[in-house]
């Protein structure tokens, strides 16, 4: 991803990546069709402009003043959550709360709206409207702060209509408290999930990507038996290197059509001996 793309994704929001059914299929941020103020398309660190080189158009944009601003907190912003592409969940609530009502722009006007308490929370929930999101990308979140992780789970629990969800490389270990009732495609590759028991509830999932996690056994895989699962990807998990791996997966999921990108083969019904002959390596 280019530096300019990463700036767009880092600053559009304080929360995750959403594409509604009306939005395009791009994985990158595009605010040309929205009313997001250009002041939000900026980095949250002063040294970012030095990395951009000759891209002078970004150098005049304010940065620190807006570093923890979400799109729906800006005065007169009308953008909804399902109109955003690749926003981020970021940390820093304490710093933000100390200055939320005092921040002003170059003309001395308040940056944020003046809603407080319950009105502020209700307005946030209305503008985020994650319930309307159909295609969602919340990958590469770098959830190092407890505030980020809490908001990440909060957003996931609101994705009741999401049919396609990307959660790659988020350092996730447990999503069992989340339910995704309409999700047909879920990509959880490059996380740290230790077991199928830590997956979210997926009653209608058809395509599930779990490559490069830390799944060591097939315990709990049977929870997917009732789902219309067609393809499952488990490459680079410890369990994928065990004896009779493919045969055992297809035995647990008899309706599965493809495993690790390979369609079901006649040999996937034939179990080899569990005991392998010992081998000795002689180094000369």
From TrEMBL:
PROSITE patterns for the chain: LRR (PS51450)
Database matches in Gene3D superfamilies: Ribonuclease Inhibitor
Keywords: Leucine-rich repeat, Repeat
InterPro entries in the record: Leu-rich_rpt (IPR001611), LRR_dom_sf (IPR032675)
Protein name: Leucine-rich repeat-containing protein 49-like
SUPFAM superfamilies: L domain-like
Keyword Repeat: yes
Region listing for Disordered, in residue ranges: 1-29
Record bears the keyword Isomerase: no
């Amino acid at each position: 991803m280019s530096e300019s793309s990463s700036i767009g994704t880092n600053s559009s929001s304080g929360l995750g990546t959403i594409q509604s059914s009306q939005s395009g299929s791009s994985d990158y941020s595009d605010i040309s069709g929205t009313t997001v103020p250009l002041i939000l398309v900026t980095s949250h660190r002063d040294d970012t402009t030095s990395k951009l080189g000759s891209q002078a158009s970004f150098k005049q944009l304010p940065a620190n003043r807006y570093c923890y601003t979400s799109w729906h907190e800006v005065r007169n912003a009308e953008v909804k959550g399902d109109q955003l592409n690749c926003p981020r969940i970021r940390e820093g609530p304490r710093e933000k709360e100390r200055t939320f009502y005092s921040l002003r722009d170059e003309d001395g006007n308040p940056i944020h709206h003046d809603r407080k308490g319950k009105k502020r929370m209700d307005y946030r929930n209305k503008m985020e409207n994650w319930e309307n999101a159909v295609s969602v990308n919340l990958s590469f979140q770098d959830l190092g702060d407890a505030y980020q992780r809490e908001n990440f789970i909060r957003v996931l629990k609101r994705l009741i209509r999401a049919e396609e969800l990307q959660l790659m490389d988020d350092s996730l270990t447990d999503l069992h408290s989340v339910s995704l009732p309409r999700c047909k495609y879920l990509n959880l590759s490059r996380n740290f999930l230790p077991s199928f028991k830590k997956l979210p509830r997926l009653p209608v999932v058809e395509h599930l990507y779990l490559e490069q996690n830390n799944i060591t056994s097939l315990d709990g895989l049977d929870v997917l038996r009732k789902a219309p699962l067609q393809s499952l990807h488990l490459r680079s998990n410890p369990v994928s290197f065990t004896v009779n791996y493919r045969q055992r997966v297809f035995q647990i999921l008899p309706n599965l059509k493809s495993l690790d990108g390979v369609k079901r083969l006649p040999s996937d019904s034939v179990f080899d001996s569990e005991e392998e002959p010992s081998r000795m390596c002689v180094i000369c």
